[in-house]
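Give me the 3D structure for Beta-galactosidase.
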Amino acid sequence: MPGNQGWGAGRGPQRLATVSFLNLRPRHSFAARAARCGQHLRLVTVVLLCPSSPCLSWKRIVGVFFLPFVLPAFAPRFKQEQSLTLGGAHPPQPRFNWSHLTPLELKNRSMGLGTASTGRGKPHFTLEGHKFLIFGGSIHYFRVPREYWRDRLLKLKACGFNTVTTYVPWNLHEPERGKFDFSGNLDLEAFVLMAAEIGLWVILRPGPYICSEMDLGGLPSWLLRDPRLLLRTTSKGFTEAVEKYFDHLIPRVIPLQYRQGGPVIAVQVENEYGSFNKDKTYMPYLHKALLRRGIVEFLLTSDGEKNVLSGYTKGVLAAINLQKVHKNTFSQLHKVQRDKPLLVMEYWIGWFDRWGDKHHVKDAKEVERAVSEFIKYEISFNVYMFHGGTNFGFMNGATYFGKHTGVVTSYDYDAVLTEAGDYTEKYFKLQKLFESVSATPLPQVPKLTPKAVYPPLRPSLYLPLWDALSYLNEPVRSRQPVNMENLPINNGSGQSYGLVLYERSICSGGRLCAHAHDMAQVFLDETMIGILNENNKDLHIPELGDCRYLRILVENQGRVNFSWQIQNEQKGITGSVSINNSSLEGFTIYSLEMKMSFFERLRSATWKPVPESHQGPALYRGTLKAGPSPKDTFLSLLNWNYGFVFINGRNLGRYWNIGPQKTLYLPGVWLHPEDNEVILFEKMLSGSDIKSTDKPML
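Predicted structure for Beta-galactosidase (698 residues):
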């Protein structure tokens, strides 16, 4: 049979089939089981030909198993126990030979990824008719500098994985309505083709919603402009936007599919919809939208183990996401599809971090045990994350469990590779495990990416925010405050990320009330008088002798990426601003998106020498000397407070002294030889020097 070629090709005579069945429950004999069920045993003698010995011993008369009479009673139970319970049975480890099942080797293609079941055996995946297990690892191309894609993919292959999985972030690919970007670090096609060149299959997860701890779960923020539009439903406004996005995305995917000679063997429909479950017609709609545009490869969904039933879509394989393996891991999945192979689409081998929370780690031995169990029971899996990368810029999401909390800049995730692509204990444990079940040697492990410690730098020049306002785009003047998404900028798409400054003259004090999301600093002229957030919606303004400028600087700290809360993630000031219950009107609104063009304009600004100490939002400029051959490093800002770091105009992300993250990853490929411009936008209070280290502090 073709399926056998992928599992033990090239090996000598084997007696695994009978022995493996005996070992399903070694502590209980067949006789004991049969007796408990009231079965009567008969002795049936079957002589096996033994090529390794001419003699016939009682040990080799394996036919004394009473199989024709006993197994019919137990086969269903064995199947169920083996499908739903891990840890009890110990089938022998097979050796896999998939050397002929790689994108480079498979030239004649017709069948793609599928499912099959042989006799009374468990259902399994097939690839071009050969039995196949998915050993997947997640790498998000948009979280990794393009120059390092090859390094990370080679390390995935060298560890023993055969598949890479990635999300596709709608918000990055369509930053403005109708304006698409698939260039540079967002070149999806280049990433997929590189994976094929290295010998990896690809599972694409194009959303439209992806979660992924990204701002709004990867949905574009301009969808929030229309209050009638309901996210992740068949609401007219949402489906119209999805249709246009898919019209640009899917034609790029079509030639990358398996049947077209590409490496994409499967496509995921949406993501974790079972926990959202607002519209029963939504998932079937997306299923048809993909088919209608020419997606012909294997389709699947992905849900938490408790939400499989509500996320199930007819005609699509249901896969599960999980953090730990336990006795009833697959019980819900078994209810919706008994005749399909098991796929763990996300095995969380670590976790993301949030500001003000602890750094999460997961024991490497626990990961090794779980993956070993998957292999023993022929369960396909995807390790989330193999390499997490970084939430560069403003792409981080947030959680909301009674309180809004932003996700940190690092997406290290305690993954198999570190944020900077270095090896971990998990890497070597998994590599050793995969090597033990591989019939062919694994590729050579790539060399480490070198790191460097650069001389400390002390910013020499600074520019208070108030002096930088004239270098921003033309402000919006409005009778009432306008939330970030509804500002009339960016071709009618509003503002997605960064900060918004609301300014108005006032001549009296009193109780100020405003709904600000996520955090707002309130100033009288240039002096901060308090902070507004979701839990603090008012503050006292002292009596004024003269008219002063009321300034409210609001930061988007990341839109919630999970749960129904995504519908209410408008940022900036939402609603009116009042003093003593009297609404204020006539605002000047500045958009601080911190784009590259802004920093280019700042070169003509009149910067000032940095004072001993400065309180309030300001930009600080210095020079990082990287030498003739720049290398990766980590910036340490331990004596700074809260803000963002820009290297040569690139936004590395947020720093915050509440932790847990204490350093920012700086890829060497983003540095110029010798001098590099470093600009900090510090919101609170100036620090002193900026140091670098060759080891992260997470």
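DSSP finds 15 helices and 34 strands in the chain. Let me know if you want a second pass.
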